[in-house]
Amino acid sequence: MTVLMIATALLVLALDVGTKVLAVNGLGAQSLTAIPGLLELRLSYNDGIALGMMSGQSFAILLLPLAVVAGGWFLLRRYVSTYFTRAAIGLVLGGFLGNFLERLWHGYVTDMIFFPFMPWFICNIADITICIGVCLLMISLLFRPGDWREKNAKDDSPC
Asked: Quick one: pLDDT band at residue 153, thresholds 50, 70, 90?
């Protein structure tokens, strides 16, 4: 791991925890319209994963994200990381930590960002940074081939 990756992950974790605390303490049962028709703040608790899937299956909900992050680490460690990929991985890792730790401590994830034009979807900062990080990794795979140079046998440094 590098300083950029760790710093990005910690920044995302801090933003995620901070916005969740603000939402729990400030929103309650009310909804705040930030941008009419585009963005509202609503407090919601999700004991499942994406869009409430697997609700009530606590063990699987904790195990699945761990397996995905472990699998990602296993695959990515083969490649020399760039600033671009380290930032993307930091976004995913910080989002993972924000949601995983909350699930571990509370058994659910606090969501508060609601888009009225997508009434089935409510999310939090961790969800958004995971999506952005994954999109950046996809962009890197498609358009930045230099980001995916395999490490040679002599280069044993971690990502």
From this structure: very low
- Identify how many contiguous H helices and E strands the chain contains and give both numbers: 4, 4
Annotated catalytic sites, by residue?
111, 127
Q: What is the reported pTM?
A: 0.85
Nearest residue to 116 via CA among 3, 32, 21: 32
CA atoms within 13 A on the CB side of 99: 28
CB-based contact 154:102 (threshold 8 Å): no
Interval 69-111: pLDDT, tens: 889 888 888 888 899 999 999 999 999 999 999 999 998 999 9
Query: CA-CA distance, 141 to 83, in Å (whole number)?
Result: 14
For 62-129, the three-class secondary structure string (H helix, E strand, C coil) is HHHHHHHHHHHHHHHCCECCCHHHHHHHHHHHHHHHHHHHHHHHHCCEEEEEECCCCCCCEECHHHHH
Per cent of the chain over pLDDT 70 is 91
Phi, psi of 94 (to 5 degrees): -65, -40
Question: CA-CA distance, 9 to 152, in Å (whole number)?
Answer: 27
